[in-house]
Amino acid sequence: MEDHTATRASARPAPALRRYVGSYVGFDLRGFPAGVHCGPPGRVLTAVISLSGPLEVAAGVDDGSPVTRFDSVAGGLMRRSVAIHHDGRQEGVLVSLTPLGARAVYGMPAAGLAHRLVPLDELLGDLGVELVDRLRAARTWAARFAALDELLLRAVGRGGDPVSRVRPEVAEAWRRLLAARGRVQVGGVAAELGWSRRYLTERFRGEVGLSPKTFARVLRFEHAHELATLHDPLPWADVATVSGYADQAHLVRDWSEFTGRSPTAWRRGEVLLGTG
User: Which of 248, 275, 247 is nearest to 264 (CA)?
Assistant: First the structure.
């Protein structure tokens, strides 16, 4: 058995940030076999600040996407996994942002980052450089999370009120899709909001970067992925049923589309599974 260690720490952001930033997660993984981790699509935009060597990331798995090196990277909502190449060592901090958080922290709608990986300092400028330096200089997770609070509050303070620039119908559609974990009819949501399905799709994609239908599929896959990464995972047929797929074949099709691998190949290749 490999001699490896996995350390994880998490924190909620300061109250003033919580409508924009969902969580902070610190991780320190050492001694694992080298491999390629599938960073799955989900409901949040992510930013990762490496505390060790550069991150080597591609915007797709096993599809020929070029691998780019980042000291810190921000990504938008995706409809496929990113490939994180590692040598068995990963240390860093992951920040999860809501789509509204893209406007508040980066000063742009989430749609501007959809399907993209961007250096964090390209979005935050000098504040991004300071953020990386502060996190690497800190010696405890608590100190790193405190630095994140301070610097992200400064980033939010540079712009106006992001809420006023988002149509309330789009925000409500987002909430309903989240609450149902994607198991809702987009046409029904549009009708309840007083919009046509086409108009909701256009406005939702313009703000978020994905159509409501695609986002619903991502949410359903996200639920399945959570179940599949449990320490004692369910059989694949049960994962499909619980997360709202018609059957296991339907799950396999979506899993292959979103990760570039079949569920079985994904589980076999994920050497970081079970690290939390």
Answer: 248
The secondary structure of residue 27, as a DSSP letter, is E
The region, left, alpha or beta by phi > 0 then psi within -120 to 50, assigned to residue 168 is alpha
Instruction: Report the 10 Å Cβ neighbour count for 124.
Output: 24
- DSSP type of residue 12: P
H helical segments located in the chain: 99-101, 120-124, 126-137, 141-157, 168-179, 186-193, 197-208, 212-228, 236-242, 248-259, 263-269
List CB contacts of 80: < 8 A, sequence separation 6 or more: 41, 59, 60, 61, 257, 258, 259, 260
Q: 3-state secondary structure string, 113-181?
A: HCCCEEEHHHHHCHHHHHHHHHHHHCCCHHHHHHHHHHHHHHHHHCCCCHHHHCCHHHHHHHHHHHHCC
Radius of gyration of the chain measured on its C-alpha atoms: 19
Assessment of whether the complete model's pTM goes beyond 0.85: yes
pLDDT in tens, 184-237: 999 999 999 999 999 999 999 999 999 999 999 999 999 999 999 888 888 999
